[in-house]
Write a structure and sequence with these properties.
single chain; alpha/beta; 9 strands
Length: 497
């Protein structure tokens, strides 16, 4: 691999453009400025109303608050069940066979930029370069850029050591804040020469025909499609209970939830990798927000608000799952924090959101983006109340759920848990993974971890909103890596069979 040496003035100018391009393209749509004055006033006002109500009339206020949370919970669960049912009726993913992908002549293929941000990950670089070397795409049309922080000496040294026939350009991102993945991507975009661009994480293993499939899929798609999301799955997804939960969750997300969102035309929170973009559309909206720690979710929303749409391409990228609970909580906290950032930025101008997405799209945004972290907290809260009531028959629980409210909460408790079990069973069937069945039935334990991560995310949103908690990779070792990788690539088509 070769290091591209950019002279300091040019690098500084490129970084300045990268940090300011979202604000330049869409003023007020960056997470850099946090809550607006109006949002702070609304938030303080809501807190005051709740506190005063609980002090003045605790029984009535508590019952009303619990009833509203219960209704929000059931609305969120109902929405997700509807997404699952919709995805089972129709698969909106664009399917490109191996033969169709390979029959496109090389001279009709565009230059394809591949951006790979990495930080402190020397142990996975060898596997990454080997995986990229297996991509079936003309070498002279591949613009592969490994984005490394210029003070990450260990990873830079490892990159220089790797020998590969693939031409990989190592681009050193100048020091600065915020030190986030989207900041590196925006910097890399300044030097990209492709008509299409995709992002892979350092531990990713895309199936070899993915770029060719994306090219064909873009040509079949409607003109307004600016992004195609490939599916993600895991190698080593059966190592322990946590990896099984993670694998089942990803299967639900990419095989059931995202197809349902795409089919309904709802805002699509993109995954952080294997997104394939039209570079012109990407530059039009300013690229990624460097201050948003779930930059993919935010970008998907901004593209759709600009009139573009997001589609799915039936191809798979295998990732390494989190095998460590602490590492998982850090990663999930970042995801939840980014969802909250995205939602709050969008809601700076509610009228414009309704104008851009319509009332239906706005409701989908609330239920799927805003309520995802909230639902994680509510799971723990409702389960805690249920345990306290069953074991202690505490009087305060009865006060919170008087009369009809109690029966409503009981019905929601039964409906919510049955719905989650239903979705889990559908996931096992769709993903053809009977080995995940026990993990799905034990998913309430997974909810506890989600709740911890969500509470942590809410705290960090106030204390350190743009801090990027790095996910440590390479913890799983070898194990069933090869078996899962082969199985995942073999299943890169026909996920909805």
């Amino acid at each position: 691999m070769r290091i591209r040496h950019v002279d300091p003035p040019t690098a500084a100018a490129a970084l300045e453009r990268a940090l300011g391009q979202v604000e330049a393209a869409e003023p007020g749509m960056s997470s850099a400025t946090g809550l607006t004055v109006g949002q702070r006033r609304v938030l303080v006002g809501l807190v005051l109303v709740v506190v005063v109500s609980l002090v003045a009339a605790p029984r009535v206020a508590g019952a009303v608050l619990m009833t509203l949370l219960t209704l929000l919970y059931v609305a969120t669960i109902t929405h997700r069940v509807r997404l699952v049912r919709r995805s089972l009726r129709a698969d909106p993913a664009l399917h490109v066979s191996d033969a169709e992908a390979r029959e496109v002549p090389d001279h009709m293929l565009p230059v394809y930029t591949v951006l790979v941000p990495a930080y402190g990950e020397p142990e996975v670089l060898g596997g990454l370069i080997a995986a990229l070397g297996r991509l079936e795409y003309p070498a002279h049309l591949l613009d592969v850029k490994l984005l490394l922080e210029d003070d990450d000496d260990v990873t830079i040294a490892r990159a220089v050591e790797i020998q590969s026939a693939l031409d990989v350009e190592v681009l050193l991102v100048p020091a600065g804040e915020p030190r986030t993945k989207p900041r590196a991507l925006d910097y890399g975009l300044q030097f990209s020469r492709g008509e299409l661009v995709t992002i892979y994480d350092a531990e990713d293993h895309p199936e070899p025909l993915q770029l060719r499939r994306a090219v064909v899929a873009f040509r079949r798609a409607a003109p307004e499609v600016a992004c195609l999301q490939a599916r993600l799955s895991f190698y080593g997804g059966s190592r322990n209970l946590l990896t099984k939960w993670f694998t089942a969750e990803y299967s639900t997300w990419f095989n059931l939830y995202l197809p349902g969102l795409v089919d309904s035309g709802a805002p699509v929170p993109l995954g952080g990798t294997s997104n394939h973009f039209s570079v012109s559309a990407l530059r039009e909206v300013g690229g990624w927000d460097p201050w948003n720690v779930t930059e993919d979710c935010d970008l998907g929303l901004r593209l759709q608000r600009r009139g573009y749409s997001v589609g799915l391409v039936d191809s798979v990228t295998m990732e390494e799952p989190n095998t460590d609970v602490v590492n998982w909580i850090k990663q999930r906290s970042r995801w939840y924090k980014g969802y909250l950032q995205t939602f709050l930025v969008a809601m700076r101008r509610p009228r414009e959101v309704v104008r851009d997405l319509g009332w239906s799209g706005c409701a989908e945004l609330v239920l799927f983006v805003g309520c995802t972290p909230l639902l994680a907290v509510l799971n723990l809260w409702f389960w805690g109340l249920s345990i306290v009531w069953v074991t202690l028959h505490a009087q305060f629980v009865q006060v919170l759920y008087p009369g009809v409210a109690y029966h409503l909460a009981l019905a929601v408790w039964a409906f919510g848990n049955l719905a989650v079990v239903y979705v889990s069973l559908v996931t096992v069937r769709v993903a053809r993974r009977p080995d995940l069945l026990l993990a799905c039935l034990l998913s309430p334990l997974y909810w506890v971890l989600m709740s911890i991560a969500a509470v942590r995310a809410a705290i960090q949103l106030v204390t350190d909103p743009s801090h990027w908690e790095k996910t440590t990779h390479g913890l799983g070792g070898g194990g069933d890596h090869d078996h899962d990788l082969e199985a995942g690539v073999a299943d890169s088509t026909g996920a909805h069979a």
